[in-house]
Design brief:
Blueprint lengths: L16 H22 L3 H17 L6 H10 L1 H19 L5 H22 L8 H26 L14
Helix pairs in contact: 1-2, 2-6, 3-6, 5-6
């Protein structure tokens, strides 16, 4: 509704926190719509990179999503050891003949359980720093997701199904 004659309405200032929040949400909605409309496989990666950057800012750090994703390789020995432990646990629980959906479900539970343990059990309730630990856990999950999406992008030319789909399909 326009203002009554003789009255002026002050436009919101883009520096206003409420205006910035509304503009940010609108930009995200537009980006989501554009990626969804085209079925662009790059859309999830762009969203994950933005999330990594925003989580870094929230942690008081300089955002560098590519370095965070590549940082997974810097932890090779620890990651490889965890992969071996997870594989051995799956083999002993389900055997080598288990179907892909069963194994995927078990691994998803392991990932989520580890993240929740990091986020909730690292520090006792009420100890300063618990929010920072939860933020770090969230960043780890987003970093993992971005790394997996990047692996799919690299493998997309290697064969059908590399870009997604159901496990074992």
């Amino acid at each position: 509704m326009p203002p009554p004659p003789g009255e002026s309405v002050e436009a919101p200032h883009p520096g206003d926190p409420e205006t910035r929040a509304v503009l940010g949400e609108a930009a995200l909605a537009v980006a989501f719509g554009a990626f969804a409309e085209r079925g662009d496989p790059g859309g999830p990666m762009q969203t994950l990179l933005a999330a990594l950057g925003l989580l870094a800012v929230q942690a008081g750090e300089e955002p560098d999503p590519p370095a965070e994703i590549l940082g997974i390789a810097a932890e090779d020995d620890r990651v490889e050891a965890e992969i071996d432990r997870a594989g051995e646990a799956l083999d002993s629980e389900f055997g080598r003949d288990a179907d892909a959906n069963t194994l995927t479900g078990a691994l998803e539970a392991r990932i989520l359980g580890s993240a929740i343990t990091l986020a909730g059990c690292t520090l006792p309730e009420g100890v300063e720093g618990q929010a920072a630990v939860r933020l770090r856990a969230a960043r780890s999950l987003v970093r993992l997701a971005a790394g997996l999406v990047a692996l799919n992008a690299v493998g997309a030319g290697a064969g059908a199904g590399a870009a997604g789909g159901e496990p074992g399909a």
